[in-house]
Amino acid sequence: MSTETFDAVDVIRTKRDGGTLSPEQIDWVIDAYTRGAVADEQMSALAMAIFLNGMDRAEISRWTTAMISSGERLDFSSIVGPGKKLATADKHSTGGVGDKITLPLAPLVATFGVAVPQLSGRGLGHTGGTLDKLESIPGWQANLTNERTLEMLGSTGAVICAAGSGLAPADKKLYALRDVTATVEAIPLIASSIMSKKIAEGTDSLVLDVKVGSGAFMKDLAQARTLAETMVALGADAGVKTSALLTDMNTPLGLTVGNACEVEESVEVLAGGGPADVVELTVELAREMLKASGVDADPAEALADGRAMDVWRKMISDQGGDPDATLPQPRETHTVYAESSGVLTRLDALSVGVASWRLGAGRARKEDAVQAAAGIRLHAKPGDEIQKGQPLMTLMTDTPERFGRALESLENAYSVGETFEPTDLILGRVETN
Ligand code: URA
Hints:
Helix 5 (102-110) packs across helix 12 (276-292). The strands form 5 sheets. A 4-stranded mixed sheet has the order 3-6-7-15, with helices on both faces. Strands 8-11-13-9 form a 4-stranded antiparallel sheet. The chain is of the alpha+beta class. 41% of the residues lie in helices and 17% in strands. The model has no long low-confidence stretch (mean pLDDT 94). The protein is globular. It has 3 domains: 8-69, Transferase, Pyrimidine Nucleoside Phosphorylase, Chain C (Transferase, Pyrimidine Nucleoside Phosphorylase, Chain A, domain 3), CATH 1.20.970.10; 80-325, Nucleoside phosphorylase/phosphoribosyltransferase catalytic domain (Pyrimidine Nucleoside Phosphorylase, Chain A, domain 2); 332-417, Pyrimidine nucleoside phosphorylase-like, C-terminal domain (Aldehyde Oxidoreductase, domain 3), CATH 3.90.1170.30.
């Protein structure tokens, strides 16, 4: 006879029929799934029932807490900088194309005496992963012990490293299952997945960059706002000061999409240059993080005068990387030329993200390796005047047999017209009242 408190079938049936799961049912199902007492096929059915019928605020909050309880919690409360305890501020993006913002942002915020723990992941699918980008720097190591992470936060002020396997193990198992059962895009499941890891990480404050558009999970603003509100409420419930920016992801960020090329562009931004959209988003997110940490200062000036570069160099060398090393260059390139003259009115983030992924910058399965030099350099962005025959983008890879499939993804990736209506990069902001 089973010694389990609940029967998985009853839990699934409750949600299938549109009911509300009790706190005890939620605690049990997350724990039992992590232990293997609830089978993958049962959790798949429950995830689909949640996808179709949703969860209320109390259910999402309890589900998040149960996932946090499945693993360890980090404690950054002991981080001491020169003479005082440091506030910790973290940023999380829901994932986009050309989204390298963490790289300039973490050192920038650290220059103001706020500690920035960026426990990051690798990319899966068309959105790139921060660790994949940084691993293109010769010698750089993503894995740190918790003790070393704390030490670096105290001495350097910022650390970008792999999230250890001890944080929210229930989410790791559930996310892999959602990935193969078409249940990733459920707002309660995305919100609890992201926030369980961020709350377990123990930061004082958190800024969310919720992407909206073709290259994002959330294709429209209303959906993105609901996701942002759900996550901000979960942060507040857990005592983490949380706010969110809703930002455009219909076109790639910056002029590079891939790994090494995105590091190069981030270094340009840290040196006071770089594309305007990358600079704007870095500064806006830094403002949010500084405000949440009680620091009244303007990050725009600090980015423009290059002072965050020292933190960047130390952050990279602390993890074995050589900040002066030449980054890997692709063995093969292929240029796409404009077929007509006019104004570039559209450059689709999803198409470019998928092309970069097919060139080898991303992985299809989590065990795949990525190519450091693979990706795409853009030579024009929406709003730019272009001439027929002008280079529009350069595709880069070490394996030229990949060009064909990447080019297929770019077939309808851009439009040329006569007039261009600029759109805002920052589409909204959400915080608790
Ligand atoms: N990122 C996560 O960590 N979880 C999700 O569910 C979606 C994006």
